[in-house]
Amino acid sequence: MKKKAKIFVGGHRGLVGSAIFKRLESEGHHNLVVRTRRELDLGSQSQVGALFKAEKPEYVFLAAAKVGGIWANSTYPAEFIYQNLQIEINVIHNAYVHGVNKLLFLGSSCIYPRECLQPMKEHYLLTKPLEPTNEAYAIAKIAGIKMCQFYHQQYGANFISVMPTNLFGPRDNFDLATSHVLPALIRKFHLAKLASHGDWDEIKKDESQFGKIPQDIMDCLVVIAQSQGHPLPISLKPHASKVKTAPAITLWGTGGPRREFLYVDDLADACLFVMNHVDANWLYGQGISHLNIGTGSDIPISELANIVKDIVGYEGEISYDTSKADGMPQKILDVTRLTSLGWNHRTSLREGIQKSYEWYLGHSKAD
Length: 367
Known about the structure:
Elements: E1 7-10, H1 15-26, E2 32-33, H2 45-55, E3 59-62, H3 70-75, H4 77-97, E4 102-106, H5 135-155, E5 159-164, E6 166-168, H6 181-196, H7 200-210, H8 215-227, H9 237-240, E7 248-252, E8 258-259, E9 261-263, H10 264-277, H11 280-285, E10 291-293, E11 299-300, H12 301-312, E12 317-321, E13 330-331, H13 336-340, H14 349-364
Parallel strand pairs: 1-2, 1-3, 3-4, 4-5, 5-10, 6-9, 7-12, 8-13
Antiparallel strand pairs: 8-11
Helix pairs in contact: 1-10, 2-4, 4-5, 6-8, 6-12, 6-14, 12-14
């Protein structure tokens, strides 16, 4: 991409889009087209068409999506498939209609089968049934991948897809009702640390900034505070006698599933690398529909929890609710193709978590 090229970044305020936007600027790309949700509804065919007609972007990074963790995916499957399909159809089709030079679509590693061989190679797509807890989201993402592939097949469009592993970093979603595992761990342990200090004012600020604290988590905070001899706010005193849980932060599942995590700035670096070095002819000529992006290493959720706990500085206990679903037993990507082209991640898991927590702290202090 030339420095003066006009580039549209869809979802520039999200976790992924903001990292790509920041990286583009740092590389000297300043002819960037962005719109907030208020300014542009990517689910509206007419609005997206009008944007492409007016701006005529040469390159597109499609990072916009409705995302969430196991609970959100299981609770709102219709919303996940509908909204993501709308975004993909509108942006990819209009990129073709208005002659975009190249489009990069970002998917998710949840596209792979639940019982997929590990590490997951690109050609394992659609070889077995999907994980039920996020099937709707996965199907939408698979549709986006195939749309890029078929627009190249029929029209010669230089549209390609990348599949990042589990992502985390600044601007992550810390709302405990919809967040993924790593930001949820950061927030849960931070709240637990505040409760162990009896700092209810900071807990209230955190709730106003990052969303309502679910009742089960609040129950844990009450017990943790009481176990340290701290007084409770008046509003919580009538409820405290009903709480029977142990003074511990409870996590869903067994803690056994293994997951791979990539710091979002490394993903942004990979996306620019792919946009500059990989085209549709090479990708589809490999007999694959997308390119994996990850670290090539994974970690049990229980071990991840202990790392986050240590970084946050929470000294209490962890318990596991084994009645809750684990999701896929393991998810690690085979990144051989990408590394063979010369790209590797740079940020260690611990370093990335530390940076994420520092960002979170800076925003949890907001009044």
